[in-house]
Amino acid sequence: MNININTDENLAPIGIFDSGVGGLTVAREIIRQLPNESIVYFGDTARVPYGSKSKGTIIKYSRQIVRFLQTRKVKAIVIACNTASALALDELQNEFELPIIGVVKSGAKTAVANTYTKRIGVIGTEGTIHSQIYTKVIHEYDAEAVVIGRPCPLFVPLVEEGWLHDTVTDEVARRYLSEFDDKNIDSLILGCTHYPLLRSTIKKIMGERVNLINPAYETALNLRELLSANNLTSPLETIADSRMHKFYVSDTPEKFQAFGNSIDLPFYIEKVEQINIEAF
Amino acid sequence: MNININTDENLAPIGIFDSGVGGLTVAREIIRQLPNESIVYFGDTARVPYGSKSKGTIIKYSRQIVRFLQTRKVKAIVIACNTASALALDELQNEFELPIIGVVKSGAKTAVANTYTKRIGVIGTEGTIHSQIYTKVIHEYDAEAVVIGRPCPLFVPLVEEGWLHDTVTDEVARRYLSEFDDKNIDSLILGCTHYPLLRSTIKKIMGERVNLINPAYETALNLRELLSANNLTSPLETIADSRMHKFYVSDTPEKFQAFGNSIDLPFYIEKVEQINIEAF
Predict the structure, then answer these.
(1) Is B56 on the interface with A (CB under 8 A)?
(2) Is the dihedral of CA B243, B245, B246, B249 positive or negative?
(3) pLDDT tier, B211 (very low <50, low <70, confident <90, very high otherwise)
(4) Yes or no, beta carbons of A158 and B158 under 8 Å apart
(5) Which of A113, A88, A138, A110 is nearest to A222 (CA)?
(6) Burial bucket for residue A156 (CB in 10 Å: 0-12, 13-18, 19+)
(7) Burial class (CB in 10 A: 0-12, 13-18, 19+), B220
(8) Rounded CA gap, A134 and A86, in Å?
């Protein structure tokens, strides 16, 4: 038991951010696993997508978002976007005092813990895959693991078009995933927050022998450890009132709200506020 | 002959902007038709795409770009992006003194001049189609014309993936363009600067009887009229030195330069400069 609780800080919310709506799949997992915590979510819908943009631009955007989240008095930050985790996490950790984690480390850790063949596939945006971040982090856990990456740039627009179960999506997925033919992988990291929504299509192609890894689950576990290590866990013994959760976006709220309320969150998103992220 | 030439202003460049690289197809047409003019091109590659974003955001971004182009002392501005032409042209014309034209009016005018059935199709981004701007402008030229619009959100990512001649692109195009089955259109406006790169796919599906209209050609003609009406035509009698053309982007220059040099411009893009557009 931690007896050193500073209640104000412990009651502060957790900041979560993503380039858009995809990070809500991570927020959902955090709310499920840490039901006593409240969250402040920011989706950069005016500048989405991040996947095809440069490291410098992603760092700049992420820095603005952290500054904004600081004005909401968050106690810790989760980068729910794989691209921003890949390209900006180190920089942000150096620049800011507050604890920040990303989804990449969590995904890498889970993959290493679950692979038998030590051959791991990763799919993600161009930014994430070309950064080779998953390879680097996986090698910190297991230097012998072989990591095979493949960018899948059409997956995000296909999800946003709503073609989740569709012959076009099947064909695009078959083409992208043929990268892994004869590569003998037994684990495939879904290295973009949109991809879990294509899980059934990907599963059908990869087959039963390949384990699909969604970094969101492990990210929520890592967040719990981080809060505990920093004496930041919420002292609440009841479930946080869902009206405590706050949602912000950089473009108009309507689309974000509609998507958020379509993905089985444990509550209804009533209010989404638009802010001018460039001012931060 | 215009005898009232203020040489400094007449020698000034033409500003052209787009959300990214697509507007280079418009720049190409302007350089072909107005070879004595020099251009300053801006591609908002850090915030691309515009097609799915709100009117307020597009106006804000376009305003920043016009302010930037003013620092380059342009004498007129062409909005090469259909979405920005649809959502921001009126606002910008009200706010700024210098002459500004967009691609939408040019596309609409050509369609009206060429249709026999008075039934015109338009394809474009969600922003362009939902704004109904083409319908409004076409009705200014011909109140009886029937305009049928269809958003094609996957076309831009397919072009950017390079799948220009591909069975997946064929299938996506067939699905989107089935909107026009039995609609008896004889003209189809390619209402997004990326779409002319899919011309052969679209032609194959629409058939010989439907005229595909690329607004870029007419835009260059309209620009010539605009310059002439404002006494802004270049006094040069020789072709502008291509080193006079300037290219700016908001993200890193490499991808932009590679694309620009792949689309048959009448010169080689040697230098692309990155600027901080949010500062304007």
Answers:
(1) yes
(2) negative
(3) very high
(4) no
(5) A110
(6) buried
(7) buried
(8) 8
Coil vs helix vs strand at A180? helix
Count CB neighbours of A28 within 10 A. 18
Q: What is the pLDDT of residues A86-120, one digit of tens each?
A: 999 999 999 999 999 999 999 999 999 999 999 99
Do B18 and B81 contact (CB within 8 A), yes or no? yes
Chain B: residue nearest A277 by CA?
B278
Q: Which of A197, A96, A111, A170 is nearest to A146 (CA)?
A: A111
Any idea of the CA torsion for A89, A94, A98, A103, to the nearest 10 degrees? 10
Tell me chain B's radius of gyration from C-alpha atoms: 18
Helices and strands in chain B, H and E counts: 12, 10
Chain pair A-B, CB pairs under 8 angstroms? 54
Residue B218 near residue B112 (C-beta atoms within 8 A): no
DSSP, collapsed to helix, strand or coil, labels residue B125 as: coil
Q: For residues B83 and B78, give the distance between their C-alpha atoms in angstroms, rounded to a whole number.
A: 13
Helix axes A82-95 and A55-71, enclosed angle (nearest 10)? 70
User: Given CB atoms, is B162 within the 8 Å cutoff of chain A?
Assistant: no
What 8-state DSSP symbol labels residue B235?
-
Six token digits for residue A194: 């949109």
Q: Does A174 touch chain B (CB under 8 A)?
A: no
Q: Which residue has the higher pLDDT, B99 or B240?
A: B99
CA–centroid distance for B147 within its chain? 20
pLDDT in tens, A182-220: 999 999 999 999 999 899 999 999 999 999 999 999 999
**Alpha-helical regions (H) of chain B:** 7-10, 24-33, 55-71, 82-95, 103-114, 126-131, 133-141, 155-161, 167-177, 199-206, 215-229, 253-260
Any idea how long chain A is?
Answer: 280
